Amino acid sequence: MTTQTLRPASALAGVRYEIRGQIARRAHEMERQGYDIISLNIGNPGAFGFRTPETMRLAMIENLRAAEGYVHQKGIFPAREAVVMQQQERGLRDVTVEDVFIGNGVSELIDLVLRALLNDGDEVLVPSPDYPLWTAATILNRGRAVHYPCHAHNGFMPDPEEVERLVTKRTRAIVVINPNNPTGAVYSRAVLEGLARIAERHRLLVLCDEIYDQMTYDGAEFVPMATLVQDTLCATLSGLSKIYRACGFRVGWVSFSGEREGAAEYLQALELLSSLRLCANVPGQWAVQTALGGYQSIRDLVRPGGRLHASRQAILDAVARSRYLELVRPMGAMYAFIGVRPDALPGFDDRTFAMDLLEYKHVVVAPGVSFNAPYNTHFRVTLLPEPEVLADVFGRIEAQLDVYAATAPAAGASLRVVSRP
Asked: Which of 44, 335, 391, 416 is deepest in the core (most CB within 10 A)?
């Protein structure tokens, strides 16, 4: 009998999600072998002792009986109304519950908003580095991700003029991730206005990933993109996962604003896709109204004296002490996108480093190429661990880089070496 070979879909050839890829799989193997692994590759608050606010947990529990059946494909009314009220507080007076869709996390909604939009070969402008699901979802939905650079020397903010030069007749949308994952950049009002004007001139759908909207540091101003976009359709995506530390609830939303008259068919297509999956997870939806309307405890975590602020400072201090590392100070989100100075380690390769750090120092980080960066000199860590844990982690990182430095490879050579825990 001939063995049949099952091959994956060809579209997956261009898809990467190394945050949960080979390195993460190896980490799970080592944990099963008894090793204690510190995983900094995923922004999962629950894994580091952060609890979902009790009021949200109670709201879900108290409404469990009302969550046993299917609900409207766009989501329950109280959840959508809470999103409307938040948008109205930000100055968007014409948003209604009909403009809001609830999904199984922002991840599902990224797929749906692109699936409803793209035809073969349509282009989407995506930042580089990016949160890789945006690139993956574009490819899987028959589109082409065109990456606009966000340079470290510019604080990882895009240059609108550089972005506009990438627009073609096939461009359908522009993705704006602010505050940014993986870099922690918080875009200035001038940059956002520049991107908004580009979208309006070229009639592009603006896709705003604002899941970290209230997670900013040291007085950085978060400007909601929807408040700047009038003459084209704007989609704002957010959810409970990060600000409200409720990743497992799998609740996200997208609200539409701006010019909607010409977008009726697109929005109908999005509702069709929402109907095909019947509805989003219902129990978690009952926590939305309490989350958005209640006490915003995230502010206690990001201000001086708060845990996230302290952990961020621990990373800044560790990088300042390092012989090898450099960092554009993250002003938002829960990550640091750390660079290794080429003059200090000219042969550095982020994938090799990430695997060596796991094997020999038992720490998981995400290599920078995971985020569609065109260079291999960076890695991302989350700010979620306690400052003491991060201090230990960066001691291990420095030790691994010391081993590399001791081998003194020629520029461009592999840094694969044998080290000991």
From this structure: 335
Bridge partners (DSSP) listed for residue 208: 176, 236
Residue 130 lies in a domain: yes
Q: Whole-prediction pTM value?
A: 0.91
Six-digit token string for 63: 């409404």
Query: Distance of CA 268 to CAs 87, 99, 263, 264, 272, Å?
Result: 22, 11, 9, 6, 6
The phi and psi torsions of 303 (rounded to 5 degrees) equal -80, 165
311 within some domain: yes
Range of the domain at 352: 10-50+300-407
Give the pLDDT mean for 110-137.
Answer: 97
> How far is 334 from 332, CA to CA, in rounded Å?
7
Strand partners, 38: 363
| CB contact at 8 A, 129 and 182 | yes
388 and 264 within one domain = no
Tell me the C-alpha distance between 264 and 260, whole Å.
Answer: 7
Alpha helix stretches (DSSP H) within 128-188: 132-140, 160-164
